[in-house]
Fold this protein.
Amino acid sequence: MPYAVLSTARMGVFVENSLHWAVTQKINDKFQPCLIVAFNLTQEIFNEVPLPEIRVASSAMLNIDVSLFEVYLCMIVSYQTLNYHTTKVDVWLMKEYGFRDSWCKLFTLGEWRFSIPLIYLKPLCYFSDRNMILLKVYDNKLFWYDLNSEKVTCVLGLPNFHEAVICAGSLLPPSLPSSRKRTNPSRKRKYKQEKVISYFL
């Protein structure tokens, strides 16, 4: 992989048959600004995802993370001071995959709305009326964010947990493409190994 995956990226985000990570790239011994790359699982190639124009003050830095929100690629942009203190977060959705102009800013949150440091924020899902969004902050805290009133409410009474993710169900079992047939008994062990790898993708 010709990129350095950022520490917050963790698992790849699956959208449009590709896995996505927030990365940086080292050119001439210097790391370039953050970007998003996609690894196409069919073509087995990397592509850089076009980003919207983001303005950053000279006294600030930004950090990019990615996630899945509904069916859309979601980009979380954290604005930080020079001592890595997060001041605000923008959440963007790519409404039409692959097109720079389709990025839409969903909302902006300032740290003053939270009782804990505003880091590792990810939107998880809408509430039923789509006026509220469930947010995960700092790995183990959940909040409701009201898009109309811009009010933030902590979700109380939950047991301790380390991670919260959205799971997309499917009626199709994980399997190898139908073109791969086990015709040679000597390849039996290799076939089983490939099937396990396919399952985790």
In short: Residues 173-201 form one domain. The CA atoms of residues 94 and 103 lie 4 Å apart. The longest strand covers residues 60-69. Residues 178-201 have pLDDT under 50 and may be disordered.
